[in-house]
Amino acid sequence: MGPGRGGTCQVSAWDHVFLGLFWMYNAISVVIFHFSWKMQSDVWGTISDQGIVTHITGGNFAQSSITINGWLRDFLWAQASQGIQSYGSSLSAYGLFFLGAHFVWAFSFMFLFSGRGYWQELIESIVWAHNKFKVAPATQPRALSIIQGRAVGVTHYLLGGIATTWAFFLARIIAVG
């Protein structure tokens, strides 16, 4: 249904705000990740008694940063392993925080790309379960508007992304430190 029949073309002033926030976060993240990996690869390290410099990531920035797979494999996946595999160590709180925040961040895409469809389906499933088990039979779902769905999505995206990035770097610094 188009704008002439009471529908919407799904473009509003708020969409520009949400897209601006989305791309602002992405641009800032690229700068932060670039700086962090470059410093670990080429600047930060230790000097042995013989004067040999050993960098934290073995100097792989120049070689791996030219491809997306290099960023995923040698930076994100390789460096997130300390946080993800931190069960039973002093890093376990950061690992759990990283995984939880990553879930919140990934959950945001359901709102950002689908508008409100998945959200409404989830709510209706929860309401059905409440009615079936007579937990709260008077509860009725209310549909989110498209703008509300996107607002929820961009909020989850920003907060989940910031928390994931924070936990990622903190676990990495503590593991290396």
Describe this structure in words.
The chain starts with 12 loop residues before the first helix and ends with a helix. The chain has helices at 13-42, 61-64, 68-84, 92-114, 117-132, 146-176; strands at residues 45-47, 53-55. Residues 1-7 have low confidence and may be disordered. It is mostly helical and 177 residues long. The protein is built from six helices and two strands. Helices cover 68% and strands 3% of the residues.
Short key terms for the protein model shown above:
177 residues; transmembrane helix; disordered N terminus; membrane; 2 strands
Q: What's the Cα radius of gyration?
A: 22 Å
Taking strands numbered 1, 2, ... along the chain, how are they ordered across the largest sheet?
Answer: 1-2
Binned strand content: under 5%
Task: Specify the number of helices.
Answer: 6
Transmembrane segments: 17-37, 91-113, 154-175
Keywords: Membrane, Transmembrane, Transmembrane helix
Pfam families: PsaA_PsaB
GO cellular component, one term: chloroplast thylakoid membrane
